[in-house]
Design brief:
Elements lengths: L8 E12 L6 E24 L4 E12 L9 E4 L2 E10 L4 E9 L1
Antiparallel strand pairs: 1-2, 1-4, 2-3, 3-6, 4-5, 5-6
């Protein structure tokens, strides 16, 4: 089915925590690292469009990984210092998962 030798790259899964700054009283968004996992990356689609005289790019990327940990849609994937929003998590048998992510630049 899958070859574990294909998982050559590393991604990190973070959880978003909102805290209140004691000095200013404003809500601050912090990321808490949950997991560091090996993965295989595949680009599914890429779109470029112009919005309000600004070039924007949107990529949909698929990460294949082996993990028995609970990854949910509210988590954030960080891969090579870029943050990806999780759109779908597809569990396969025996711990294999496929995560569809999207990034906008």
């Amino acid at each position: 089915m899958f070859n574990i030798g294909e998982l050559k790259e590393v991604l990190e899964v973070y959880s978003e925590i909102k805290t209140t700054d004691k000095i200013t009283g404003m809500t601050v968004r912090e990321l808490k690292k949950l997991y560091r996992l090996r993965c295989k990356k595949e680009i599914q689609s890429s779109k470029e469009y112009i919005s309000a005289n600004k070039d924007t790019e949107s990529q949909t990327i698929k990460f294949l990984l082996f993990s028995r940990r609970n990854i949910v849609l509210e988590n954030i994937v960080v891969y090579k210092d870029e943050q990806y929003n999780i759109k779908h998590v597809y569990p396969y048998g025996n711990g294999w998962q496929e995560i569809m992510c999207e990034i906008r630049r």
